[in-house]
Design brief:
alpha+beta; Rhopdopsin 7-helix transmembrane proteins; Alpha-Beta Plaits; 2 domains; five-stranded mixed beta sheet; two-stranded antiparallel ribbon; 13 helices; elongated
């Protein structure tokens, strides 16, 4: 493949990337995409300058220094964009990468290293390799907080691009030690740039899908899981030690009637957050609707189940909401039921609900356990 074709493919990889990033930024508003797009535009322009120089359309000094300075800045912008896309954070220190690229351009310009093809190519690709490595590290490290498969493909593409850039440096500086010819490594680098654009799009799409899934499974007011999520997460087969806690805010309708729905919503959010904090990550929790909450626990005894419910009840009782002339101090009633005699999840939840009804009948602000004989008496 001749040099003109390779340069055209090189420029095309950045143009395609820039178009993808601009489009995804318009659709998703994910941070960093605009910098990725601008960085690719810089690199496409640098590749254009190099192509025009190879054809003799520009003076040697102009296209060599122009393509070098614009290209290293483009890679720096890509690195900053990738870091922001990865962690969704904006930090002033990110711009140190761009400052480093500009400083490198100044040094190369003052020393006239750009006039030697081998020196220019080695420095340029060493710079590219460094920025690609930084980008790959950011994508990999942030995987722990954003476990999406697209990150793996993007990190792999960036690491591959870094490797081929390093092989170009090795092939240019030490031709006798290079495992592949610089031109072949350059061609593989072009493929990696297409792959980076592809996996950025995949990552943004996966984030959008994950957000929709969270919205579908989260109660919009309280931020805790909703009924749909709770029922979907319940195990198909229950076992010894499984238990339900059903909770209901006492006299919640009167709170809404006396103080308005804004205060009522504040009470709901406060109670939900208190339950979530007490439950931790190991328990299934949901707002089933209205002022009713449910928890599912494993490996319990009746004593531990009651103790957990009572601990949450006492924590909620410490809440206070200012209503101008006074305060609202919510309380909850709770019913608990422990698995027995092969009942399914629906029946066990109904038993906890029956125990909750007993707690309300017995004066509220208390915890009651399911007992078949007590339910029969109430009915």
């Amino acid at each position: 493949m001749d040099l003109a074709t390779v340069l055209l493919l090189h420029k095309s990889s950045f143009i395609v990337g820039a178009l993808c990033f601009f489009y995804m930024r318009w659709r998703s508003r994910e941070p960093g995409l605009e910098l990725l797009a601008v960085g690719d535009c810089f690199l496409a322009f640098a590749s254009t300058l190099a192509g025009m120089g190879e054809q003799g359309s520009l003076p040697y000094e102009i296209w060599t220094f122009g393509s070098f300075s614009v290209g290293v800045t483009g890679y720096a912008l890509m690195a900053v964009g990738t870091i922001r896309l990865s962690g969704r954070r904006r930090e002033l220190s990110d711009w140190l990468l761009v400052t480093a690229a500009l400083a490198l351009s100044i040094v190369v310009g003052m020393t006239h290293w750009y006039l030697d093809n081998q020196t220019r190519a080695a420095i340029f690709n060493a710079n590219a390799s460094m920025f690609l490595f930084i980008s790959a590290c950011a994508i990999s490290v942030d995987f722990l907080g954003d476990r999406l498969p697209g990150r793996i493909g993007l990190a792999a593409s960036l690491m591959a691009a870094m490797m081929f850039s390093a092989l170009i440096v090795l092939g240019v500086a030490f031709p006798e030690y290079g495992p592949i010819a610089p031109r072949n490594a350059f061609f593989m680098l072009i493929i990696c740039h297409f792959s980076v654009a592809l996996f950025v799009v995949v990552l943004v799409q996966e984030r959008a899908e994950a957000k929709l899934s969270r919205l579908a499974n989260t109660d919009a007011l309280t931020g805790i899981p909703n009924r749909q999520n709770f029922l979907a997460c319940l195990p198909r087969q229950l076992r010894q030690g499984d238990g339900f806690i059903m909770m209901d805010i006492d006299h919640f309708k009167s709170v809404n009637d006396r103080h308005g729905h804004e205060i009522g919503d504040a009470v709901l959010v406060g109670v939900a957050q208190t339950i979530a904090a007490a439950a931790g990550r190991e328990l299934l929790l949901a707002r089933l609707g209205g002022e009713e909450f449910a928890l599912f626990l494993r490996d319990q005894t009746e004593e531990t189940l009651v103790a957990t419910a009572d601990q949450i009840r006492r924590k909620i009782k410490t809440l206070a909401f200012d209503v101008g002339a006074g305060t609202v101090t919510p309380t909850v009633s709770a019913g608990v039921a422990l698995w027995s005699d092969e009942c399914d999840a629906t029946k066990l939840r109904d038993r906890a609900d029956q125990a909750l009804y007993r707690a309300k009948r017995a004066g509220r602000d208390r915890v009651e356990t399911y007992a078949a004989e007590s339910v029969a008496a109430l009915s």
